[in-house]
Amino acid sequence: MHSIVYVALVRGDKVAGYHARFPDLPKCAVSAADPAELLANARAALRAELQAAADAGDEWPAATPIELAQAQPPEFPMLVDVEVEDTPVRVNISLGEQLLRRLDAAATASGATRSGYIAQAVRAQLGERSGGAADFEGVARRLQDELSSVGRKLTENLGPDSAFSRSLAEWDDRVSETIRKAADNVSAAMARRREAEARDVTPAAKEPAKEPTAEV
Predict the structure, then answer these.
(1) What gap in Å lies between CA 186 and CA 179, rounded to an integer?
(2) Strand ranges (E), 73-179
(3) Which of 45, 106, 123, 168 is most buried (most C-beta within 10 Å)?
(4) What's residue 216's pLDDT?
(5) pTM of the full predicted structure?
(6) 25-46: b or e for each residue (b if 16 or more CB lie within 10 Å)?
(7) Cα separation, 144 vs 148, whole angstroms
(8) Domain ranges of the chain
C-alpha cells in the first residue's frame, strides 16, 4: 500500500456549501456542507474512480502538481490523498477465444470487470487475500479484540476488585472513622456542658432566719 495524491479545485462557502472537481479526472466531482466533509467525500470519490479505472484495465492519469493546477477564481486547490494497493499498468495478453468467453462470463457473474477478475485470480493464485468480505471480517475481529482489551483494562482499573476501588474503599473507611470520632467528641462535650449548667442553676440551701432580740 502507498499513498497517491491528486489536486482538487474547490469553490463555495459555509452558506452555499462546497464543491470540488479533479482536473485530472473530469468525471470525478463531489459536494459537501463543510471542508472536513468535502475532504472525506473527495477521498472516497477519488478512490472509487481509481478503482474503476484499474478494473477496466486503464492506466491512471498522471497527477498534476499543485503549482501547475489551473484554478478558476474563486477556486482554490486542495490536495487529496488516498491509499492504493498498486498503480495499474496496461499489458497485452493472449488467451484462447473460448477461455476468454468463460473469463468474461465469470467476471460478469461476480460483478467485476475483465481486468479486475484477472487481478483477483492472480492474487488468489499467489496466496494473497483480496479486498472484500474477508478483509472486512478481519477488521471486525481486530476491532472486537481491541474493544475487549479496553474493557478488560477498564475492569482492572475501575472494577470492584481493582486497586482503585480498594483505595477508594479504604479512604471511605478512614473518612467514616474520622466522622464517627468527631461526633463522639461533640457528644461528650455537650454532655459535660449540660452537667456544668445543671450545677450552676441548683439553688443554695437557705440559712434559718434569726429572731430579733428585745432590749431590756
Answers:
(1) 11
(2) 76-84
(3) 45
(4) 47
(5) 0.46
(6) beebebebeeeeebbebbbebb
(7) 6
(8) 1-90, 162-199
Closest CA to 42 of 16, 15, 61, 24: 24
Which pLDDT score is estimated for 39?
94
How many Cβ atoms from other residues are within 10 Å of residue 49's Cβ?
19
- Is residue 89 classed as helix, strand or coil in its secondary structure? coil
Listed in order, strand segments (DSSP E) in the chain are: 2-13, 17-22, 25-32, 76-84
Q: Is it true that the peptide bond before 203 is cis, omega within 30 degrees of 0?
A: no
Q: In 10 A of CB 128, how many CB atoms?
A: 10
pLDDT in tens, 77-114: 999 998 877 666 666 777 788 887 888 888 788 777 77
Please tell me the distance from the alpha carbon of residue 16 to that of residue 8, in angstroms, as a whole number: 18
User: Which residues in the chain land under pLDDT 70?
Assistant: 1, 86-91, 128-169, 175, 201-216
Tell me how far CA of residue 50 lies from CA of 94, 130, 180, 201, 213, in angstroms. Answer: 25, 17, 74, 102, 137
